[in-house]
From TrEMBL:
It is found in: Secreted; Lysosome. GO terms for molecular function: oxidoreductase activity, acting on a sulfur group of donors, disulfide as acceptor. It comes from the Eukaryota. It holds the Pfam family GILT. This is Gamma-interferon-inducible lysosomal thiol reductase. Its EC number is 1.8.-.-. Dimer; disulfide-linked. Its main location: secreted. The keyword Nucleus does not apply. Lysosomal thiol reductase that can reduce protein disulfide bonds. May facilitate the complete unfolding of proteins destined for lysosomal degradation. Plays an important role in antigen processing. Facilitates the generation of MHC class II-restricted epitodes from disulfide bond-containing antigen by the endocytic reduction of disulfide bonds. Also facilitates MHC class I-restricted recognition of exogenous antigens containing disulfide bonds by CD8+ T-cells or crosspresentation. Lysosomal thiol reductase that can reduce protein disulfide bonds. Facilitates the complete unfolding of proteins destined for lysosomal degradation. Plays an important role in antigen processing. Keywords: Disulfide bond, Glycoprotein, Immunity, Lysosome, Oxidoreductase, Redox-active center, Secreted, Signal. One of its GO terms (biological process) is immune system process. One of its GO terms (cellular component) is lysosome.
Length: 213
């Protein structure tokens, strides 16, 4: 009878759906998924429904050259720079809701690596671009990329292409296909709590094939 006597007792909150995106900054299919699927879904859903982790690295290769770590990226040096810029942005901004719109801005623009100042001015003017530049040019950026390399290499099953999506720590062909076909529908289906109105129905176009190794 406790609930009847205490109707204002808060119900335990459901755990958010945890989505991790392993991607490359210049991979066309990665950019399309992030810009057209992931970012709009994040905007539509309440914060407590979806927790996103971004890991910019993808099919890059980490090498030890004369005692220093070096990275070779699928789409060349500019992609390595883009990956590190986004990793440093996350490190400096810290708050997901601060840095995700900036990454959306970078990935949706004509150049991922040349629009940082403009994207920061629009979405996160409080973040110091100088600190991001120092991170990219210094040891911190290398350490962040090493961390992303380790996280990507630890995937089970190992990633075969990007974008590579895990949902609640798991990757299957079915989960990947459902996330790419209708991410909003998938998150709404998996979330155990009270669902918002936007979870009514959602269908979306297919995306191009991923960037294979």
């Amino acid at each position: 009878q406790v609930q009847g006597r205490c109707p204002s007792l808060p119900s335990p909150a459901a755990a958010p759906v945890e989505l991790s995106l392993y991607y490359e900054s210049l991979c066309p299919a990665c950019r399309e998924f992030l810009v057209l699927k992931l970012f709009p879904t994040w905007l539509l859903l309440p914060e407590e429904m979806l927790s996103i982790t971004l890991v910019p690295y993808g099919n890059a290769q980490e090498r030890n050259v004369s005692g220093k770590l070096d990275f070779e990226c699928q789409h060349g040096p500019e992609e390595c720079l883009g990956n590190m810029m986004e990793a440093c942005l996350m490190h400096e901004a810290k708050n997901f809701s601060t840095y995700f719109p900036v990454i959306f801005c970078l990935e949706s623009g004509t150049s991922v690596t040349k629009n940082l100042e403009a994207c920061l001015q629009i979405y996160a003017p409080e973040v110091d671009s100088g600190r991001i530049a120092a991170c990219v040019q210094g040891d911190t950026g290398v350490a962040l990329m090493h961390h992303n390399a380790q996280a990507t290499q630890a995937l089970e099953p190992p990633h075969q292409y990007v974008p590579w999506i895990t949902v609640n720590g798991k990757h299957t062909d079915e989960l990947q296909a459902r996330a790419e076909a209708s991410l909003l529908g998938l998150v709404c289906h998996l979330y155990q709590g009270e669902k918002p109105e936007v979870c009514g129905s959602s269908k979306a176009p297919k995306f191009p094939a991923g960037c294979r190794r």
